């Protein structure tokens, strides 16, 4: 299986104290870069969440957003007696110092921060809910990345086939093209080197022929294309290896074009370079 670094997932779950929602999104990146955005009270769980993500992903810029909507507790709410006593004491002290000060109303007291005590939310419960939520999100996320990876694999295979076709068309064309060019070059050399023996002309032709011979480039192209097929069949984290092969393919296509003495070979080399660039752009999205 080949995975894209681009993916998305969104899940939610209910806890006893409220609703948790988790969103994962990722784009391509040279390394694994995880950004967690969550309420500050959840930072205690950050290490566990990072471990879960790191176990699934090797590369990519990952953004994880966690939102929490607390549920209003209808029952089991009590007054904070200690704070209520403190408020009464403060009220007396203020009235003593400022006789004209307004008394605290019942609404003022009930709206005072911390006056209403609710059962504490268990960290263990929140942790378990968050871990379960992250695992579910990662399953959906991996499925999304896998679907995108399959599309990219098909994209690459189509272009590999086109390059292989171009290479196959070049192979039988090259000897005839070189022979025709050597004939033209021989005539030019004889005209330019009048009085020089044929052996000198043959030496010059042989030297130039070695410079324009592309058998080695065509052979290396075949080797690199075969390796790409092997990597795509093998699957896994293939992005970096395929990116390296793109550099090698581009080098051979460039050399093929620079050595070409025929318009058709030059055209084929140019089309190869276009296809290689298209593949290289998409390979940047593979893990």
Automatic annotation (TrEMBL):
Residues 2-153 form the Endoribonuclease YicC-like N-terminal domain. Its cofactor is a divalent metal cation. GO terms for molecular function: hydrolase activity; RNA endonuclease activity. Signal peptide: none annotated. It comes from the Bacteria. The keyword Nuclease applies. Residues 174-287 form the Endoribonuclease YicC-like C-terminal domain. The keyword Lipoprotein does not apply. Keywords: Endonuclease, Hydrolase, Nuclease. InterPro entries: YicC-like_C, YicC-like_N, YicC/YloC-like. PANTHER family: UPF0701 PROTEIN YICC. Belongs to the YicC/YloC family. This is YicC-like domain-containing protein.
């Amino acid at each position: 299986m080949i995975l894209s670094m681009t993916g998305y997932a969104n899940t939610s779950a209910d806890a006893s104290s409220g609703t948790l929602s988790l969103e994962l999104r990722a784009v391509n990146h040279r390394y694994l870069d995880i950004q967690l955005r969550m309420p500050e009270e959840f930072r205690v769980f950050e290490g566990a969440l990072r471990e879960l993500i790191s176990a699934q992903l090797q590369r990519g810029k990952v953004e994880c957003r966690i939102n929490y909507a607390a549920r209003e507790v209808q029952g089991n709410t009590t007054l904070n007696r200690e704070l209520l006593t403190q408020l009464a004491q403060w009220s007396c002290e203020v009235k003593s110092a400022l006789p004209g000060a307004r008394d605290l109303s019942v609404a003022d007291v009930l709206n005072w921060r911390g006056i209403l005590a609710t059962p504490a939310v268990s960290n263990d419960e929140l942790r378990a809910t968050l871990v379960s939520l992250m695992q579910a999100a990662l399953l959906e996320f991996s499925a999304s990345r896998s679907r995108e990876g399959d599309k990219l694999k098909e994209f690459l295979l189509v272009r590999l086939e086109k390059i292989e076709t171009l290479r196959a068309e070049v192979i039988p064309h090259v000897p005839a093209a070189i022979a025709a060019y050597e004939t033209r070059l021989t005539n030019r050399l004889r005209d330019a080197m009048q009085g020089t023996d044929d052996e000198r002309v043959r030496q010059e032709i042989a030297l130039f022929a070695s410079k324009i011979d592309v058998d080695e480039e065509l052979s290396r192209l075949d080797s690199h294309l075969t390796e790409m097929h092997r990597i795509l069949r093998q699957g896994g984290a293939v992005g970096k290896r395929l990116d390296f092969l793109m550099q090698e393919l581009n080098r051979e296509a460039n050399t093929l074009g620079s050595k070409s003495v025929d318009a058709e070979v030059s055209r084929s080399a140019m089309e190869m370079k276009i296809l290689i660039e298209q593949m290289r752009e998409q390979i940047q999205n593979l893990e």
